[in-house]
Every structure is written in C-alpha cells, then in structure tokens.
Amino acid sequence: MKRLLFTLALAFSTSIIATAVQAAEVKNIVIVHGALADGSGWRKATEILERRGFNVTIVQEPITSLADDVAATNRVLDLQDGYSLLVGHSYSGMVISEAGKRPDVAGLVYVAAFQPEKGESLLDLAGSKPPAGNSIKQTRDGKFLYLDPAAFAQDFAADLPGEDAAFLAKSQVFAAKNAFAAKVGEPAWKTKKSWSIVATQDRSINPELERDMAKRAGSQVTEIDASHAVFMSQPEKVAAVIEEAARQSAK
Predict the structure, then answer these.
(1) Domains of the chain (ranges plus CATH)?
(2) Hey, which residues does 220 pair with through a beta bridge?
(3) What is the pTM of this model?
(4) What 3-state DSSP class applies to 145?
(5) Dihedral class, residue 119 (left if φ above 0, else alpha if ψ from -120 to 50, else beta)
C-alpha cells in the first residue's frame, strides 16, 4: 500500500511539474512597430519565427498618443493564449516599457529602440545624445512628425535596396508630436528580463544612446552592423535574438 501511495504521489508530482514547464513556454511573439514605418516591414522576421514554431502577431498602433499605442498593444496581448514575448522597435520601446508590465508578458526585446527610465520621454532621450540624422519635420498643423522623404533612405534604411527605402519613405506613418513628448511610468524592464539590439549604423537613434539605455536596464545586448531598419535588412539576426529571448524567458 505504501509503495502504491508513493507511486501515485510521484506520478502526481511529475504531472504538476510537466504542466508548469509547459505553461512557462513562450510561444507568442507580439511585435510593436516603431514610428514612421508600419508592421509590414516585419514580414521576413515573422516568417522566420513562424517556421521555428512561434505564434507571431504584429501590433499596428496608430501613433496618435503613447496611451493609444499602449492600449492597441494591450488589445493584441489580450488575444494571446499563454505568455508572450513583447518586441518593440524604435519609438515602440516606449510602448513596450508600459505595456510589458502585464503578468502575461515574459520578457522584452528592444530593437534599435528607446528604453526609458521613469519620467523620461522619447524627446528627452533623443536630445541627450542626438543621432547623426537630423531630418525630422513637422506637418503644417504642427501636430505630427515625419522624416523628410529626401533623407529617409540615408537616415532610416541605408542598407536596404533603393526601391524598398523609397517605398518606405512614401508610405511612412506620421507620429503625433505628443506621443514623442509623453513620459513613461515605472518601466517594465525593471521587473522583466530584457534584450537589446544595437544597430551600429543607426542614424535615427544614436548607437551610443542605445548602448547606454541597454546597460542601464541590464539588458542582454546584441550588436548588429545595420541601419535603423535592422529588422528589415537583417531579419535572420533579429529573429535569432528574439528566438533566444523567448527560450530564455521560458526558464
């Protein structure tokens, strides 16, 4: 009888452990695109990750305000089954730093992105170490910002084929000025594991600023020789970082 009870207890414990391990797996990747380019640029990286067994969803946020973009991200996170890894490019480092505080977010990946401290805005950070590019312009009403199409290729996507960079310039998503001025609360990277990709040829965010923010956050850093559009020009390398982050988040 004792042996039977021991065997049943062992089987029950093993089942609980197996269930816990399975529940901790991170199979959902939620990607939040940055300002000036929409989520379609993540297609190649998405296809790579899906081939490796991940469920990938892209948040098409409106970039009308930081609060609106966090809400858009939360709506997509609500659709996921289980834990998610949250990925943000550029401006959307601000977004995932807010939305990533949810208990169902297992980790954060910053891709050539801003990693704010509490009370900082994108404008605060960008002004602390200005980038090499200086081609941001205002719309006539003064409410939105965009990148001068003539400088788009050089400052955003210098390592993409010319026709691709030209199309990005024509299809860019304007960003509300108040989204860039909004200050974040306590950032998620203080309580969640984080990874950071530094684009060493970035002319939209100073690579030194990317390094400084990642160091402050204690992020695991990968440097890739690429422009700000690293997610498009180096999708294999970016996907590899995301995959490893998902694996490590599951531990």
Answers:
(1) 25-249 (3.40.50.1820)
(2) 195
(3) 0.90
(4) strand
(5) left
